[in-house]
Here is the input.
Amino acid sequence: MPGRTHSAIVLSSGGLDSTTCLAIARHENYRPLYSLSFDYGQRHRHELQAAARVANAFGVAEHRVIRIDLRQFGKSALTDDIAVPKDRDASTISGEIPITYVPARNTIFLSYALAWAEVLDVRDVFIGVNAVDYSGYPDCRPEFIRAFEAMANLATKMTTQAAGVSRPFRIHAPLINLTKAQIIGRGVELGVNYGITHSCYDPDPQGRACGRCDSCLLRKKGFADAGVADPTRYSTDPSGVL
Here is the structure.
């Protein structure tokens, strides 16, 4: 979309979805682009390293990592001493909210993005949530995105001080109705190098994906369904898919 002058913040986990989201924002000519990641007490640092690689590859204006400690609350396999589920089939993955759900995570992340957006006078935030090939997280649903967006437009100086004059705050979730294969296909069209991304919940110390957690299984299935070679480094045999 040539001629666009609006800037945007993209929430970046260093994973497949958020990186595709960043590519879409760039393709739609949002300038400048900012990326925001979170050191929230997750099990490993590899996703933050991937987010830094992605930010560098896309040449964002600024990449920030916000430190918060969700381990204080726990009750998630990503922030507590709880085993990450492995080798689950597709119906089980999509049939329940798994223990890898981090309580209120996207609500917290979007709140930080909203605060930074107000400081930067940015009205557009991109998030790579998906409600098709996903793990059943309640904060990945369209209803949640719409509700947060409505709240945000009531909650900030930038959206209320000049009512009827200023642009509203928008949350863009361009992947929300796409399958993982469609997301990968779109990313390939936009030149995304998925080899620099990281999706695994439980990688080994070298950062190689386990190939067995829900995130790995959905990622592998996506590449297989899209007919695209999977560039992921696995610590186990990567051939098995859902």
